[in-house]
Amino acid sequence: MKISSKAIVSMILVLMIVMGLIFMMSYFKFQTTLEALIQNRLSVISITMGESIESAIDLGLGLGEMRTAEEVIARAKRNDPGIASIQIFDSNGQILYSTQKEMAGTNVPPYVLQALQESDDQAWWLDRGNYFVNGVSLLNSFDQMIGGIVLKYPKDAYNTKVAALTHSLTRKSILIFVGFAILAFIGIKLGFRGLSRYAESIESSYQRIQEEGDAVCTIDLSGLPAAASAESMIRMDDLDEKLCKIRDNLSEATKDMHELEGAALKISAGAAQPEV
Known about the structure:
By secondary structure, this protein is of the alpha+beta class. It is built from six helices and seven strands; from the N terminus they run ααββαβββααββα.
């Protein structure tokens, strides 16, 4: 494989790795940012509702005695239609108020009470597969937990945005990769053209020296940048003479090795003969 071809393959592999890393970083960064935005928005809604409910509690009303609770959760849902449901429940998990009327009187899922008890903050957040779940604890004037508010937010819009980003990133990554690959191909072809020819000439020189043996060291220098002669067969330049010397030195060294081996064999044979 030519030097330029190796450089092009290496450059393409590097581009693939770099573009893959950029794609993954952008994808996960977008996911994290979008999830944080949804979490912050739902937290603001739930905390605002919680403060409104707690103000009524501080006036002496029980959690199940509030006439305005239904209006509070209905107004919050109108402000963000993406919310699937809002529920207010007591410390036992029984739903007292809900945007889904049929849920009133039932109990919240066990994971809601578990999150409520394990959370160190008043607000908490869960990812439940198809839903984001945001909640806030309701406290009385003695900072005792008397219930909570839970919001369910479907991930349909979230998944749609993530899928749109994935499609956009994939298309742009391919375009950028192809563009850089073409530029790298052209640049390497132009930049390595002289070096490739020179490397090919060196290889040609070596092969010709091997074939010619002790013949006059001449090669075809039409591809060498240093070639000044109009003839294709000229006397070798400094580099080619060095190659010839290397070949000659190797031949002499091999010949000397054979002579030493022959002498050693003779000495061994003479030492092995018995004395008469």
